[in-house]
Amino acid sequence: MKELVEIIAKALVDKPDEVVVSEHEDSSAIVVELKVAQSDMGKVIGKQGRIAKALRTVVKAASSKETKKVIVDILDTPRE
Length: 80
Prior knowledge:
By secondary structure, the chain is an alpha+beta fold. It contains 3 helices and 3 strands. It has helices at residues 2-12, 41-45, 50-62, and strands at 20-25, 29-35, 69-75. It has a 3-stranded mixed β-sheet, with helices on one face. A hairpin with a 3-residue loop joins strand 1 and strand 2 (29-35). The longest helix has 13 residues, at 50-62. The protein is globular, with a radius of gyration of 12 Å.
């Protein structure tokens, strides 16, 4: 799932080199964390969260054969 989120995020943003995707697993879910540049945050979230919701929907569909739930977290990076 990490690769899928990374490909989609890099296609959306202006600074694809600043996209960082990490994945960790706990007992009930796989958590995919997405970090992008502060200036690209709006592009990943979209108006009223539509892009973020679509990204989560695509990941959910792709992970339907997984036994665990996949959660996509979009992390806010602090401004410098």
